[in-house]
Prior knowledge:
Chain A is α+β, with helices and mostly antiparallel strands and 357 residues long. Chain A is built from ten helices and 17 strands.
Amino acid sequence: MNDQSQQLQQQIKTAFDNKMACNIVGSGSKNFLGNASSAEETVSTKDHTGIISYDASELVMTVRSGTRLKDIDAALAENNQSLPFEPPAFGDDASIGGTIACNLSGPARAYSGAARDFVLGAHIINGKGDDLHFGGQVMKNVAGYDASRLMAGAYGTLGLILDVSLKVLPIAQSEITVKSELPVNIAIQTINELSAQNLPITASCYFDNHLYIRLNSSEKNAQSVSQFICKKISATEIDNSKAFWLSIKEQQHAFFDTEEPIVRLSLPATTQSLNFDGEQLLEWGGALRWLKSDLNIKRIRQTIQQYGGHASVFRNASSDIEFFHPLEPGVKQLHQRLKQAFDPAGILNPGRLYKEL
Amino acid sequence: MTLKLNTIKQQLISAFCELIPKTAILHQAEELRPYECDGLSAYRQTPMLVVLPETIEQVQGIIQTCKQLNVPVIARGAGTGLSGGALPLADGVLLSLARFKNILGIDPLARTARVQPGVRNLAISEAAKTHGLYYAPDPSSQIACTIGGNVAENSGGVHCLKYGLTVHNILKLDIVTIDGELISIGSEALDSPGYDLLALMTGSEGMLGVIVEVTVKLLPIPEQAKVIMASFDDVYKAGQAVANIISAGIIPAGLEMMDKLAIQAAEDFIHADYPLDAEAILLCELDGSHIEVDELIPLAEKVLHDSGATETRLAKDEAERAKFWQGRKSAFPAVGRMAPDYYCMDGTIPKKELANVLKRIADLSAEYDLPVANVFHAGDGNMHPLILYDANIEGELERTEEFGAKILEACVEAGGTITGEHGVGMEKIDQMCVQFKSAELSQFHAIKDAFDPLALLNPGKAVPTLHRCAELGAMHVHDGKLPHPELPRF
Lengths: 357, 490
């Protein structure tokens, strides 16, 4: 437990007074995400740690931003609970602040919700050094604009997250993963049809001609649903479910072991397979697709946009390309104005999300 | 009406005649009267004009005209809101989205529906039913309230603990900005690049833009839902039972509590077979597959008994389940029969504070000599104390509002919030000064300014000016500590 709120606030305040751009970092495990920061000053939340409050019967944990994901997972596991968005860590010391700032969610995302869905409140320092509390520690709260959820995915460009309150949920008793060999478009159709039924599906993945479906429920229900799916699509249960999904979540699976750029495609789940040159791995019922390809990102973006999707260069990007999908002009203008509203001097992670923010 | 206002009104009418049929412009006193309030009828104001456009282009034109003439615009759905969010302004245009009532498409495979903002909440579920799907958020006004209003208020309902609020159940919005520009936020994918404007727009009470299309998520209808009614001889034991259910790893679809006065009111009204000798009842609904529900029911019954329930009754069939729920869902009108007027509060608290806050409400009830019936979404800590009063007795409305304000302050002190699902609107604008510091309110104003620099979209709602808080603070000095001390006093 180490409360550095005051020091962090002072650092931002001084930076504001001196118009000095800051690079906000936790453990640095997500440094590869986003554009490179041009900031000279580093503000670290790494030592701002500790679980401020956690009451299992409230389903709420409030935690300082530097707290390690592994420590949070351990505390929740004692009460048989977890962060329902199954965040990837991408590093041993990954912190919750970085996880929320990047709005990172794992395999469960399509079924349980994203990081942003579980943010109940945030205590932040804006770009002027103001100490601000938004949201709270209760499930239902509509007082004021939802500025706490706005921090999720803002990559620290609107405020430094001091602490967040998150909704947590119980862990299901049993887990089974089934696997079936299917052509890609049949697999996309199948997983979406199954998702429209009352089945405890909590993750899905497709690669190398196989669809993987994870079920989490009571032992009896999971077994019953597993038998139903196995029969329906000629699937079989795999015996290393947890290890398999960990490798997908942390991108340690062989698919991700490459020097080639890995492009993250976000699409309406039911979109047919898009024939880009390069291998693909699908998650989230087809809504998330990883593409290993050195194709021109502009071409990929032009194509995917026609399907209502967007693309970012998640791994092995060259430094001269815009990391995230460009914004439409009207939306971009709102982004610039919001940035101005939270960080008028433009000192918080400038350029990390978009060059003009 | 002043000469200047009358001139503007005439200018607006002629400009709107170029955009929409004359019949879609209401400007006579008797036509305007039905729009003078929303669901919070204690606050009334006749608007200058009401317009009823049918196309997005018309909405764009209306907003552009209002901007040119510097006239405020207040968007309105069905007008069922309970916080005066759609309260008109005497010098403002009321923009009704009531004619945007088409479901534009349902995609059963993607489990989404594209709807216009004036579509009723329940109509979405009714249309999706043939595909075995439904729209989860179910505010009690779901027969009448519209999806546009639901997004503007981030509406909840009885199933939020398991299925989330509106913000968790929408994918994409088309909005018209104050410049009249049509923009899309969110997407049919699961995320979109940049800031989470979808979250910011949800619950923004019509102050950042006008919603003209919504894409919602649909869920499979649960195979089975069963409800247990548990009686308690002590309201605090009922509160503890709620915590025990959740600690046991059970996430009920709905977990509702009613106290003695609410039980009595509902029973007199609906005859739901509620136990009249109980101090509190819990309705615990479990849904999912047959196997899941059959496993959870005995587990939940055991927890309820172990928590001191004097009786638990499992609704034996769908008819009895509907009856149990009807009592709860009719609690507001039922309580309404016990007194000429009632005032519904909407604070949320951490569940562990329930006993303390209930005690505080009981003390205040004695102090103000006004009875209170308590109905709440116990699973998520959202309380709806209903204060019974008679507006015809001079000063009683003011006393009731003061009492209500103290309940909300008690919710904030307990670590909760002044509004769980009804919104701030006009009603709770002063309590915003209690929940937020000046710096936070300033940040809200900066957000508003980013979207609407001229402050023409539903101005004066949801976020109080610092000036207002300073004046209010001077009237309510608590423990000798002046709120917002940095502000000048007037």
